[in-house]
Amino acid sequence: MSTRQQRTAYAAFKISTLTWAITAAMQGWAQEVQDATSVTEHMTIYGQADSLDKALQEQRDSDSVESVVHADSIGQLPDDNAAEALQRVPGVSTERDQGESRFVRVRGLGPDLNSVTINGTLVPAPESDRRAVALDVLPSELIQSMSVIKTLTPDMDANSLGGTIEIESLSAFDHDDLFYSLTAQTSYDENQNRFSPKYSGAISQRFSLGEGFDNFGVAAALSWQDRHFGSDNVETGGDWDFDNGNRLEGFEQRDYVISRERAGGAVNFDYRPDDDTSYYLRTLYSRFKDTETRNATVFSFEDALAEGETGETVISRELKDRTETQNIQSYVLGGERQLENWTVKAQAGYSQAEERTPLHTDSASFISDALDAGFYDGEQPHAVSSTTALASSNYTLDEIERSRSYTSDTEKNIRLDLAYDYAMAGYDSQVKFGGKLSRRTKKNDTDVWSYEDLSDYGLTDDALSLSNFQGSTLDYALGADRYGIDSDAVNGVIARLNAGDFYDEEESLINDFTMHEDINAAYVMNTVDIGDWRLIGGVRYEGTDFQARGTGIIDGTFQSIDRQRRYHHWLPGLHAQYQLDEDTKVRAAWTNTVVRPTFGQLAPGFVIDDDEAEFGNPDLSPLESSNLDLAIERYMGHASVISAALFYKDIKSFIYNTDLAGSGAYADFSEAATYANGDKAEVYGLELAYSQKMTMLPAPWDGLLLGANATFSRSSADIEDAQGNRRSISLPSQSDVTGNLMVGYEKDKVSLRLTGNYKSDYLYEVGNVSDKRYDTYVDDQFFVDFSARYFLTDNLQVFFEAQNLTDQPYYVFQDEHRYNYQYEEYGRTFTVGLTLTHF
């Protein structure tokens, strides 16, 4: 059996329990029925039984196929991290950074192909090159609910292929009276053996203004966490030479020490003077401060080596030390008014995301003379070298690279929606129409300083010896322990030099850009209820004006770039749902969506140096997708549902990285790396979900809550390089299998939950269009988490959480599993805390 076959069999074994649980449930449970009150298109998941039941009620009332995570009755999401809470729902998985869930994938489509809104306004992205929003920036205490909408109606922004993630923050009308919740906790990181505190609180109250009764509400939430953790890493970065005996050109061993401080706050106001009128103001601010110290040992082989061989090797010891702060702020003002058969809604939103990275050391590199070294173990490369090879006296400071950067992403919008209720041939109907104006600006400004040839500035080899920069001992689990590099000592060298002599104008200007994206949208749709049917049909128009300004460099000569594009999309949609019986619904939808390329792909800057070029492509077309969905849901009582959904996406103009060398203007180039539009791609799959509160069992087993979901999907896309070489690939970030298992228990004062989350391996990046051996893949992962809560009193609970009990690493490989691209491990995290509530 081949390595790939073994891994496929292993993945199938791990997911079989999910399939068994769902299949067994679908073979016929005789259940008590739950009243059905409306016809909708929703799929919903929450924390434990009460929050899950609320979600299922929303599922019945929505006009979109949708998955929801909701805060429970004491104002807590079922997970500490917003992204980790979302990964529990059907069709959703996450991309992790340093072991923490950050970016959300929906139905196997990458995070940049999904959108995020807070209280109805788009959340921009802090990173300079992305559209994806890292949801771990948002403290979970500020969130009342999160919805993943998988079929968009025409009144919604059409800017997602997988799904739109809608986040709603706390409102005073979520509770009948005074509500507050205060939490204090500490977590322990196994990798760094350090403790991290966290404090959070939320409060809401309703007041009477004028002659009204409880018609004005104020809600506020605060959260602060200072988390200390780390990881151990070894990576080749793709330095395998598959054309000459699968040899390795070099690898790095990295030790990370990280502190992440999260702070956030929200203050929301609601005014409802009568039953027909409401006004609201939603505000949210979140701050994410990431401090990272990375020590690395880099082995560069003069000639590529096979495992077990040794040869001439240059070893460098490197330091990266930076602090990065991301801020997200959002303000939404709106209102709704009913005037007989008319409903009028208006909203204005402003949101901004920014990332500041003050002046820091990107790399301080100390290089040895040539030594004899090699490696063993292709999955986790270890060094073969003398015991003295890493001695500090062997290394001399060669180069320091310093930089600072600032990115901002601002979106302003205003929208108006009008709906009119009427009778169409005696059937209840509603026509709805409106429009939205959106103005988005993305800016990036980077400055780089490269300190080289330091001996020319009066610094001797003795002064530049690594022995003078020795820091504390590193606890590195994937190789020999060694001393780190002292960043203060590195800064002391820089302080002696004139920064102006080392300013790198080329690296600074190439990364600067300003992009404007203006979208004007309008729609019309009609809803009609005919017996057990609900039909929704309509069309949305979106016109986009795009402008990009930046700088290109041709053999050292700077050139200003200014590109403009204008394009339009008409996006029809049709939704149908049928009430099969009191507790069973069938839903179908045909929708059309459009997603613009990422800002990194659209970047106008370029570098042409002799016969090598690298550039973005501001002329890229957006991705267009025609989507088909078919779903059936059966409600079986309190917090109980079983569902299945089929989906298919026909995608045009998907984007991939390519090399234009050897063609057209780049005929004489050895490399011309950029991005291109593919012709066509498709994604299709099946989602299964099941949850049930086991009230039919005798005590104490009637407190059990079971849940399982799985998504089985496939994708294919054709890519082509400049020489006409073509092949088919899976879409990047698309896992064939994702799934969750949950066993919960709630009885009296005890609440327990054990969860498992699985995703199969997926294509990470195309390395060479003409040679699939250079493609990289992310290995499959299976995470197990546990949480326990005990109510000391009706208002005071103690809780314990354990994350990553399986101690899952992050592994990226090239071609086959035995060829490392990146391996990183994090360890487990344990948390204890207290929560005081009143509601």
TrEMBL record:
One of its GO terms (cellular component) is cell outer membrane. Coiled coil: none annotated. Residues 59-164 form the TonB-dependent receptor plug domain. InterPro entries: Beta-barrel_TonB (IPR000531), Beta-barrel_TonB_sf (IPR036942), Plug_dom (IPR012910), Plug_dom_sf (IPR037066), TonB-dep_rcpt-like (IPR039426), TonB_rcpt_bac (IPR010104). It is a multi-pass membrane protein. Keywords: Cell outer membrane, Membrane, Receptor, Signal, TonB box, Transmembrane, Transmembrane beta strand, Transport. PANTHER family: PLUG DOMAIN-CONTAINING PROTEIN, TONB-DEPENDENT RECEPTOR-LIKE BETA-BARREL DOMAIN-CONTAINING PROTEIN. This is TonB-dependent receptor.
